[in-house]
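Running this now, will post back.
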Amino acid sequence: MKKTVTALAALFLAGTVTSPAIAESHMDPAVEAAIKARKAQMQLYAFNIGLLGGMAKDAIPYDADAASKAAANLAALSKLDQSRLWPQGSDNSALGEATAALPAIWAEGSDIMAKGMAFVEASAAMEQAAGGGLDSLKAAIGPLGASCGGCHKAYRQPKD
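Update: finished.
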């Protein structure tokens, strides 16, 4: 009896440890495509914010034209319809390391929408500020970063 209980416990533990990996390997192609698309969108955000942040930190020489273009890209990206990028069940609890998205995204829909709108507004403010001089860009970068962090702190698995 003791061996049976031990064996069942080991099987249960193995199932809880490996189930996200199994889920990843049998992922619905539509969910996989959505995760790839949202990761790509985040990379484009990071690419443009990286230039703006580099200028704000004086790590990259300020260039009004480049800053304006990066900010315009960011503002346009922030307005893309993301409804197909976030299907229910495309979180790290269900899919393991395939995504850093926490299940709380879907449990707290109204909050995630408000945080998303804060990013849209901060991106629009950056678009207005970026070409107006380094001081203007620096004033807009803080709220932009805070809008990114608002979602990431609440809804993204922390990086190790």
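The chain has one domain: 2-155. More later if anyone needs it.
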